[in-house]
Amino acid sequence: MDARQALASKPASRPALRVVACDVQGLRGPDLASLANLIRPLGADVVVVAGGPWRIRARTRAAALADRFNLFHGGGGAASVGNLVLVSARVSVPETWSVQFPLVPGHRMRAAALARCVVPGGSFVVAATELAADSAERAASAAVLSMVLSTVDEPVILVGNVAGTTLTAGLADAAAGSILVGPEISVRARHYARRSRPTGRLPIMADLLLP
């Protein structure tokens, strides 16, 4: 076998992806700055944010939050009730959409943000959600999102507090039960960012390999 044949027979490397999940609910000023200082050096391709802006000037505020992290606003915001998908320049986002869950009287609205993403050599769909604590509401919301994800052709990365729901079926835990991936995706490493004293928040991170 000559060098050209050997090169042709060598399997192509799989695209690597770094995903970070964090919660900015209620963070302001120095606390938000501290969290941004944690996330910026991580070199994430995708950062999924819970508790992001979704009421007044949601798109502008989401873009400003992304800028703090040296990222771009990929999707989510008002329609997804503060669930955001932020991406690096390496990731293009050709499509985004939101899924709103059945509203329970007396409870706050819940939803999910979804983004179809493309990196050199691969594509995937990110779904970001924050389910309610109430078990019946969680189950109903999970059923809705499960149905939506069942129609997705690309590998799925699901980020959120979905433990104990039907959403975990068929997905592998990539980090602390809050980042889950489809069977086509391999988990290279899972870890936490170092603890932030001012915020008390601990972003979680997973290094993945796309198919």
At CATH level 3, the topology is Deoxyribonuclease I, Chain A
Strand content: 25-35%
CATH C-level category: Alpha Beta
Radius of gyration: 18 Å
Number of strands: 12
**What is the number of domains?**
1
Name the CATH architecture: 4-Layer Sandwich
Alpha-beta content class? alpha+beta
The CATH homologous superfamily name equals Endonuclease/exonuclease/phosphatase
Order of helices and strands: HEHEHEEEEEHEEEEE
Strand order of the largest sheet: 3-4-2-1-12-11
Into which percent range does the helicity of residues fall? 10-25%
Average the pLDDT over all residues and give the rounded result: 88
Distance between the termini: 27 Å
Largest sheet: 6 strands, mixed
Name the poorly predicted regions: 1-11, 196-200
Helix run count: 4
Envelope shape: globular
Outline the secondary-structure elements.
Layout (H helix, E strand, L loop, with lengths): L2 H7 L6 E8 L5 H11 L6 E5 L7 H11 L3 E5 L7 E4 L4 E9 L10 E9 L2 E8 L5 H15 L6 E4 L12 E4 L3 E3 L4 E7 L11 E6 L2
Parallel strand pairs: 1-2, 7-8
Antiparallel strand pairs: 1-12, 2-4, 3-4, 5-6, 6-7, 8-10, 9-10, 11-12
